Amino acid sequence: MHTVDSNALAKFYQCIQNAPLGCRKPIETAEKIPGAKFCMECGFPTTLPIQTELRGSLGTYRISEILRSQGMGRLYRGTQTSNGQSVVVKEYLLPKQYFNAVEAQQRRTALGQVTKGNLTTPKGREFRLVSPSETIADPSSDRVYLIFSGEIAALPTLKQTLRETGAFSASQVRQVLNQMLQSLHFLHSQASSFASEAIGTAHGNLGLESLVISDNGYVYVCDLASWEQLFVPASRQVLLPEQDLIDLGSVAFALWTAQEIHSGSDALLNPREAQHWPQNDPPLRDFLLRLLGLETPFNSAAEARQALIKLPQPETAAGSHGNFSSESPAKPNRKYWLLSLLALPLLGGLLWLLLPRSISNSNAEMANFKHLLPSFADVNGIGPGQHPYTGEALGTWTIVLDKKPASDRKMRALLTQPKLDMAAIFNYRTYAPQRSPLNEVLEANAKANFAIASLSTQLPEGLIQETIAYDGLLVYVPAYKSQNLPSALQGKISLAQLQQIFTGQLTNWKQLGSDFPDLPIKPYRPKEPEALRLFQQKVLGNDPSLIAQFNKIEQRSTFNTLRSIAVGEKQAQKTEAGSISFGLLTQTWDQCKIYPLAIAQENLDPVQPLLRETTNGTMQPISPSDNLCLEKKPLLNISAFHTASYPLSTPLIIAYPRDNNLPGNVSGPIFANFLKTQDGQYLLQQAGLVPLQTPPKNYTLSSSILNR
Fold this sequence. Notes:
The chain is an alpha+beta fold. The protein is built from 25 helices and 24 strands.
């Protein structure tokens, strides 16, 4: 694998293990000799003492324990002293033995770009990139630090997991590939903050030690070469996206064959040798040969991911090849996930993005949901007082607060005072439509502690975001059977076609093909600013010339468009036939007189945002033949929003100040904690949003809410 060499420092020190970052001697020195700065054996810098405090611009962090060495640094667990929140600290070293003063300062400056550059642009859990929230680089110190919020950066690496569990099954390898190709697609599409990488951001350090895994099977990407290689003497490799694909192929081969476990054997496993491959999934083997570049390589991560999704399933049941499996039922932690994946049906293992989830996957979701705090009453940390916050005047959160997901109580009533036994009042108010609610939070005399918004633009500097659910747009046409525009469109439309329609380039449905009706296209722009911004970003790419043409399209509120379509079929067909519009998820997802179209992005398959339950209990995408008014209310395609495979999806975030001295730095995260309880996620789902964790069908709200 093409990874940064963590043993590059060994030649500068007489380390008995020839690996000073991972050696126990510096730790033992720090434990035995309080205040010692260097290893008593070789002179390598010791680890930080427990209770060491690091002061950054966003807070002070106290070290609680050393975790491990990883890549070119060492990981510590700690807490932010102002609020007790968990952090992971990665320490990098700039010893004078191999960095002179100029080189050291260059690397401090370059590391500072990490938290100001492209990896702090909006992203939710779906991209699984572990990005730092702050850099601490004191010019007088030979140590620099990256601060990571939460516990994700401390998860076990794939290398550790492989040692515990043995070879992954074919279905598990497919799951890892699916996640990682999506992460790489996102990463490769980002403009790099390093001038020499104008082609995009490549990882450059992808391997078993730069990928970490959670108990529920999510794999996260960390330790990008852009900053890891800063701490390798005289190193500056060229980072290429195509190399990332090859490295991912090497990771998958190692997982499937436990190659790393047997690296000390006389005959190393080699993907060029046919006999070294497991024989239980030939399609996966052929896919990996392409990913490794041993056969026709893929042009991009997106192309590879689509090929993976379309792979035929192996004939045998999912499981590791006997020669490579060393699993034992006594293994903890990672074993929970691996055993749960072994129980997945084959089809669920491959098509979890586009098709209904399996029963086993539902059980995993149930376990994740149960890990949440049950109710608002279980959330602590907020004192009495007024906590004003804001959102878009005609936006998603304003709509949500007027919903009644629990009996006759509006969300506004439930969330104004989430804990009745504590006098903490969260007052919501909006400002002028031309004002951004995010900027309201940043003003010197801000009237709002935090804001809730669908993230359609880069987060302003000085704010931290926390995803609470997923939002998006539905593009819809009338569901009139006589005209049957949904059937003519085969229930789908592409982003390119939407762009042409909403910039006036297409004016008749017949222009899409001979099978389409000779019917004028009547596009309508909604009036909701949040919906317009999302459309301009997702469909028009924020291109000023396209937006200028888009602004010429007739404008009508979503409410009036839906009402005009639903007034009566005969009357409406005269005025609404051929119409097309879009609207926010919470306004449109449960309207049966319209048909939400599946959206296709570039050369990828179209993704339908709504699902229906079949008579045998499985979930399928809705189709133009469905009568949405007679059947059960459709359900949101949760996995499509979680993974962003539905192109018009976006995180719904709470944004609050980075500055610890501002009240929103406390009240923002606490309000997010209310919404991330089991009750909170259920209420958001009932209001028409996609929850972070899926409540079970039979979920019942806590009595503290029902009895209000």
